Amino acid sequence: MSAMQVSTPTTGDYADSCASAVDTDLGWALGMVFRAYVKAANHAVADLPGGPRGYQLLTIAARALPATQLAIAQQLGVDRTVMTYLLDDLESAGLVERQPDPADRRARRIIATDKGHARLAELQQRLRLAEDHVLAALDEPKRDTFRDLVRSLATHANTLDPEANPCQVVDDIEVAETTAASPRLRRGRRSTARR
């Protein structure tokens, strides 16, 4: 190439340059792992009524101390009407039942049935397999180290910015992603409308 010729980057060069930039970006790495885990976990519970929300509700209903329908709705950050439909579906599947609260006959406690406990054990096994799939690049000692490190980071992050409702964290991330994407979506709509 002579001194007068200018080299223009090819598509491959640009992709390589972007790839090397994101390789060192913690946000990108965490986002990719989180995305892979959410996809695998959602797939693991997809056939449960309510999917991930149904799994959360079933987990709460399987506790030794049953919670009321209202308390569960508040804990999960679910509208009471939505909670009613979700419980109807889980109850129709024979996984939970509503029982009168001895302290307040107007309230209902949500209890996992024997079938619900068995289904929860199956779903927890599926989620372990989903986690193994996501962490497949690591051998077992590295997986344990990774889990310990992530728990330490999560605990520290929660002390800096406490979240009273752990179930709300994923919803907050989804809202943040939607909010961050909305200006791009608006620009995209405007440019399409001009064409």
Shape: elongated
How large, in whole angstroms, is the Cα Rg? 23 Å
Order of helices and strands: HHHEHHEEHHH
C-alpha end-to-end distance: 41 Å
Count the DSSP helices: 8
Q: What integer is the average pLDDT?
A: 81
Spatial sequence of strands, sheet with the most strands: 1-3-2
Could you name the key traits of this structure?
3 strands, 8 helices, three-stranded antiparallel β-sheet, single chain, mainly alpha, 195 residues
Molecular structure report:
By secondary structure, this protein is mainly alpha-helical. The two termini are 41 Å apart. The protein has 8 helices and 3 strands; from the N terminus they run αααβααββααα. α2 runs antiparallel to α6. β2 (96-101) and β3 form a beta hairpin. It has a 3-stranded antiparallel sheet with strand order 1-3-2.
Précis, in short:
With 195 residues, the chain is mainly α. The protein is 68% helix and 9% strand.
Task: Describe the protein's topology.
Blueprint: H1 11-23, H2 26-44, H3 51-61, E1 67-68, H4 69-76, H5 80-92, E2 96-101, E3 104-112, H6 114-134, H7 140-160, H8 168-194
Antiparallel strand pairs: 1-3, 2-3
Helix pairs in contact: 2-6
